[in-house]
Automatic annotation (TrEMBL):
Signal peptide start-end: 1-41
Protein's name according to its UniProt entry: Do family serine endopeptidase
SMART domains: PDZ
Database matches in CDD domains: cpPDZ1_DegP-like
Originating organism: Colwellia echini
Location(s), subcellular: Periplasm
Amino acid sequence: MKKSTTLLKPVNSFKTAKLSLIVGAALLSSTLALTSTPALAAWPFQVEGQEMPSLAPMLEKATPAVVSISVVGTHKTQQQNIPEAFKFFFGDRNRGQAQERQFRGLGSGVIIDSDKGYIVTNNHVIANADEIMITLKDGRQLEAKKLGSDAKSDIALLQVEAENLSEIKLADSDALRVGDFTVAIGSPFGLGQTVTSGIVSALGRSNLNIEQYEDFIQTDAAINSGNSGGALVNLRGELIGINTAIIGPSGGNVGIGFAIPSNMMDNLVKQIVEFGEVHRGVLGVSGRSVNSEIAKAMELETSQGSFIEQVMPGSAADEAGIKAGDVIVAMNGKAIKSFFELRAKIGTIGANQKVKLTIIRDGDSEEFTVTLKQDQSADIAAASIHPMLDGAKFNNDSKKQVVVIEQVAEGSPAQMIGLQKGDLITGVNKTRIKDLAQLRDYLKDQAGEVFALNIVRDKNSLYLMIR
């Protein structure tokens, strides 16, 4: 039977991926439902003189920190090109023009800092949003601003200004064990705030093709369309994950849900707070997950870990002394089960951070301390650099010290101003530009101004005027 995965998306914009992924969003209401597991005996209360197990005391503290999010935004859609047979009459004036269509979406979020008004949610909940409104459990509605996001791990950070907010304390998600009890808080199918319970079914779930960086907590706590960005907590009411995806037919729950671990989320949020974006750390290796065949061929005693096939010259791994053929089995004392898990942890921990890797080499266990370098690929959204660059995909060429245009979307603003795939941005006005960070910082002060991009195309230099 074909397996379908349901990625939790804003309710009005469902899309299908490799496993039929749907991401759900929270809807507004005030109903509180509780599906409890009989084994969850905690916080007893009195009924006719007898103590009864209940999660209510914990939930009374945790649920006010889970909010509903409503967004209004616009999607850019490509206008259909005129068939060749009719261009004689109409010309080609409409070719490549983009149209905007308004959309509305709903989701959930979690208050992680009540003093600063920080709210964490999924990136897909607020993507392309022009207006973001937060509804608290007490009914207050607040306008939120986006501080930053990371599409590759599906995390976004919002901020509101309000008093008397409740927050959820973060737990150490690395300390989770399979079998630990979990409680999911969200608003599925428009029913309002709903609470369900279950256990940690698995840890380190990856290679699901949901996000680019995956290290999910799997739980059987009921998660449905409407829970996107909601909280997964432990029995102390501490946040252990952000609910993100499910596997199930037609968006329904079958007991397989996924949450982004709180430690991963926390690493990303700290970078967004400091830099306004994620400064992704890179190790500089390629490899694959250890399996029985690799273990046999390389005479390994372990059947788990990350087998290193190549170490990039000058990379963080190279400078630390890691070699091809090494097997990374732990990071900072925590076991690494696969290459995907290693990639997710490294890719979200942040640039310039030090990590301790445990490596099996020639049958012996060794430890290496590695200082991660910053990923120079295009994590910075083009639209966040300048609206007229929206639709272009950038990368840094560290050897030539230029910004490379890797891709330009059809009908996008970037195409309209004349950018093409393969263009090299070498400067703005008369200022030399060497990388994306310099480009972004320079254009920050050019709001509303006319400026010229210095482009090298096919060895020819030209200027593109942008206003």
